[in-house]
Amino acid sequence: MAGDGCNGNGAAAAAGVVPEIKFTKLFINGEFVDAVSGKTFETRDPRTGAVLAHVAEADKADVDLGVKAARDAFDHGKWPRMSGYERGRLLSKFADLVDQHTEELAALDGADAGKLLLVGKVIDVPSATQMLRYYAGAADKIHGEVLRVSGKYQGYSLREPVGVAGVIIPWNFPTMMFFLKVSPALAAGCTVVVKPAEQTPLSALYYAHLAKLAGVPDGVINVVPGFGHTAGAAITSHMDVDTVAFTGSTEVGRLIMESAARSNLKPVSLELGGKSPLIIFDDADVDMAVNLSRLAIFFNKGEICAAGSRVYVQEGIYDEFVKKAVEAAQNWKVGDPFDVTTNMGPQVDKEQFEKVLKYIEHGKSEGATLLTGGKPAAAKGYYIEPTIFVDVTVSGFHKHTAIRKNASHQRMLTWVCQEDMKIAQEEIFGPVMALMKFKYVAHPRMSQTICILSF
What we know:
The structure is a single chain. 36% of the residues lie in helices and 19% in strands. By secondary structure, the chain is of the alpha/beta class. α2 packs antiparallel against α4 and α2 (84-100) runs antiparallel to α5.
């Protein structure tokens, strides 16, 4: 790799703001290389829709090369044979280099994913290096156990690296998800093949470059940008990949589990979609509840698996909550993520932008009342207004009897229901809140996990 390894072919979208895009090729066995097919794909700036860069497109042949490099580095290389202290020292150096490039890396994710530059500088990149340093410190603390066994014998367990880890990361938190999955694998002595989301490949390639500068041996980290049905499928079905970690949709998670089972029965770690509710009771501080619910759904444009997209408010404060929630949403500034006064940038790409707008149309056509938002927030780019629905209808009522301790200690009859509308059932992954009113609390038979906020 000559010089600093730059191989970019994309011009900066906003001179003086977006840094030069330096790395656009695959990173295999310590080198930036073109795809075997020579194909590239576009990654676009969601602020404008303009092309940021053309990135080498990995398919099965490239994944085979990446896995071979990782396999050789694991089976014959020094990384898994280093002491935990030595691995930790190199990972700490890696973290130092990431810290030194915080501004540039936050800007890359801002331009590639529409993420707020300030949040990237203050939260995403520092959190990522904190994770990396945590696992660097854990690398020499991986211990087995001495076991008491019958007879004149001694038993013990030994923890060893599993081998080659396939890592498939999403586009909503490109930096944090890279390190959340790669850091523990490296600390344990595994080697990795990473497929970043096709929407946001730029920072992952930069991290591969910094890892090499830190002294991580060739073949330990390989980055193969590409699409799920080609590069992703090749990783999950590969006979020389020993485990897979994936964050993304439930639908794709099922495919990955099936592919892993049909190949070499590799274990999988799946973090899949959600439809997380907030439950706000009459005794809540309404202003605090409004601010937290706004943050829960509109932070990062609603592109969060744990976004508070369903908000249940007890009837005693419901009207006040609705009024203040609408005001709060209307004061949530949508705009250029590089502007420090902006609260919410654009959706990650045109496909996600159109998907969110389609869900909003579903909500309106199914009879929900749109209180605010619901349309694009700019003439260009993938911006959507913070959106709030009420009158989200329910069906499939199930009678449930519960004992509730009130003044008369009487038996009360309440109801449990399943949401009917798409906006209340399906993960939108965008800035859309469904507000619903409830009266009593029982033990609901819901398929989703419920998180209760207490204020």
